[in-house]
């Protein structure tokens, strides 16, 4: 069960003809208790070790946020400056039974941040404009976590960021739009880690990104071209290590309007993602009471190639819309991790090896509006195949993860007082080890259905929703949820009633599979709930 309270207020004051000041404050208090059973089978450990956990826990949230915005929207000048802040006092605990061992979990993942976001746009006439963006922020995350060995991990994380950019836009030859962006981003990450009775360890990481990006956009007849290249000078510091390099991130897209209804788009872009402090540090970091990760100990930089081909047809007069996407993504320099189990402690450690991660995706949808029924019908489907390398039982193995999805949706309003919506989804997923078929996983197949009925009778409004989850191989249990809402609305007041989970479903089971493990989670639910609301319009 849960007990939630939300408080919010908003003040807006006009300043002259074009200016305004807005102050927004909000607070959120929540106390949630629940029961959950999790069964995890680790396939990357010898013997396929199984961990069964039963938890009874409580989460307490206390979150407060404030935002002050100044905005000026004149004829030739736009200014927006937003100053925000956030603080929370969240904590949680649980009594856990894991493989006949009784443990207590406690976590206090606190967060505080403050930021200032500035945007200035100046129009200089003749299709020319100058834009300045600036950001400064500081994020502090102190946290404690009770571990399975009954010690407490303390982590203090500090993250400071400053960025600014200047963009100039103008037009050449009446059809060529040109823009130039120049800027820099600076970030400094540092954290301290210690356990009870041990010395504090720390790591720090600094990244300075100086970049320029020229962009071109042009339209000639049925063709529209867009091209840009982000040139970045990266300077990184991690401990005693320093790395400086120049990288280019090109982007190109072409749109071809074959007819008034049919068009095709092809695009390619390349980008890089520098390593972060958690992915590099050699200090073991626990993200749960019994699982930790150790990083690479050195710089790395992942690159991403992305290619897209889209065909799109749109006929508003007939109410027919469809598209077909073909997508390819290749990520290189992805770290390979080795996993080990020490009792119930699960640890992942970077091996120093890197691999590529490839994704192939074919996706499409067809939609048709139903004028006489004031409705819409659509069907969609996609096929996705992921190829990557993972460490399994001390050896690198090549894997392929295939996911197939098919769905249907319709909405109808046969009468003015009645509307119906239905959505169904079928998903089939399978994990295949190309080097060792003994490591293949059984396919998971599941169905999801959602049905909504809305009835409006004068001032009465009734909504009835149904959700069904099931699987034809029993990997996910059959679950049915149903909620009913009734309200009576006038110009001055509204009263209503909401009945949740009216048929008393007491659990929701889902099964997940990935390279390292197969996880089955069963959440205990409140059997039924009733809420009455009343509101006045003064």
**Number of β-strand runs:** 29
- Per the principal axes of the C-alpha atoms, what is the gross shape? globular
SS-based structural class? mainly beta
Instruction: Give, in order, the helices and strands.
Output: EEEEEEEEEEEEEEHEEEEEEEEEEEEEEE
Distance between the termini: 33 Å
**Which percent range fits the helix content?**
under 10%
Mean pLDDT over all positions? 91
The poorly predicted ranges are none
Specify the number of helices: 1
Describe this structure in words.
The structure is a single chain. With 538 residues, this protein is mostly beta strands. Helices cover 1% and strands 79% of the residues. It is built from one helix and 29 strands. The chain has one helix at 277-280; strands spanning 2-15, 19-42, 50-73, 77-88, 91-98, 101-109, 112-125, 128-146, 152-172, 176-195, 201-220, 223-238, 241-257, 262-274, 285-288, 291-294, 301-315, 320-342, 345-370, 375-392, 395-415, 418-433, 444-457, 460-470, 479-489, 493-500, 507-513, 517-524, 529-536. The chain has a six-stranded antiparallel beta barrel. A hairpin with a 2-residue loop joins strand 15 and strand 16 (291-294). It is globular, with a radius of gyration of 28 Å.
